[in-house]
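FW: tagging you since you asked about this chain on Friday. Here's the raw sequence from the shared folder, copied in full. Didn't touch anything.
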Amino acid sequence: MARLLALAALLTTLAVPATAGASHRTDARAHWPKAGAEIHVDVSDCLSRSYWRTAVRGAMADWSRSSVVTFHLVGCDAPHREFQVRNQNHGRTGWVGFASSTWPSGHFDTMVVGFNDYYGSRRSASYRRAAACHELGHALGLDHRSTSSCLAGSVSGDRPDPDQHDYDQLRSIYRHQDRPGTPRRL
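HL: got it, structure written out here
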């Protein structure tokens, strides 16, 4: 509950009504445990809007082009998944998406990626795709950048995809392997 209150306080602090940005609760040092050549991330699809599902599927395909990660979309009630994507109309908050996680030992333990329908319903497909790419990048452990990738500090439909630097960062974060049996499913 304390984490939810902290996230709510952070979202309120970062709310900028003129633009829809993103809010995050991740750590650049945190990442998913990895026991093989790449990580396979099962994402629980709890989205109720088809426009978000389309955006998330497109962004998952973009991130899966890296040699590091493969995303799989599974049902909302799937018993084994790494994290959940969901949406809700949070109103005019100033943010379009968030990534909230716990990482007790440097490895993500839980992750929720959420999207705000208030902005999603008012923006283009390219913008929603950029927002999904942005939040999934954070869900992989990447931080904001000041360049033209989808991880720029503010979401823009002009930057809907990861770039080579993002893929290189993933390789850097996940270049090691963890002990066998370390990867855990929620």
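FW: The two ends are 19 Å apart (CA to CA).
HL: agreed, and Residues 2-7+20-173 form a domain with the Collagenase (Catalytic Domain) fold (CATH 3.40.390.10).
FW: great, closing this out.
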